[in-house]
Amino acid sequence: MNTVERLAQSDENANGVDGVSLQLVQKLTARGETFAAAESLTAGLLCATVASVPGASAVLRGGVVTYATDTKALLADVPKDVLATYGPVSELTARYMALGAANRAVADWGISLTGVAGPAMQDGHPVGEVWCGLKPPGALYLDGVTAVRLPVNGEGTRAEIRRQAVVLALELLMQKLDSE
């Protein structure tokens, strides 16, 4: 039994290791797959959450924080014309971010988060609007990459919104893994 399996069966999981992160590490490890992330509103929280699980280094290739709009082009390969036309908070931007993260880190899966954590609207987007992009294995171009608007409650604090976004994104990735 490896460290991740032991942790899943022990009381240590109650001491701060997020359950969905643990499940994700277990599932990706069993499949021999990796992932990378591009994060905007969560500013690295998704990667930090997964990295808290022992054994995460087997599946987490890395991540980029693309908090400022221009860094989405610089670090996640979002075309500048997409950012100019659709903005940093959009389905298309999230799709490009996921693809860019996976390609740059040479990962099987790519995941991205972009949205508004508040406290005020941003460029017409309400607090709590969050897009999650997912790039599955084998998707070499944008065609195979999807994005969904996550059901984040915009009534929470910035910290609560960011945490909700991470948990929902990890759950979405788990659902995708379970459906394959």
TrEMBL record:
Coiled coil: none annotated. It holds the Pfam family CinA. Residues 22-176 form the CinA C-terminal domain. This is Nicotinamide-nucleotide amidohydrolase family protein. It comes from Corynebacterium amycolatum.
